[in-house]
Each structure stands twice: as structure tokens, then as C-alpha cells.
Amino acid sequence: MQLRVSIAFCVLLAIAIGRTKKERP
Question: pTM score, two decimals?
């Protein structure tokens, strides 16, 4: 299992969601 890959993906996804919320409140 590649746990680091899963964590990294979740972090990147969270950042993408955060940017979307900032652009469209």
C-alpha cells in the first residue's frame, strides 16, 4: 500500500477545494 500517495492526493484535493471556495464564496 502507498499511504503517502493517498495522503498527498488528499492534501492536493483539499488545497484545490480551498482555492475554489476562495474564488467562489
Answer: 0.57
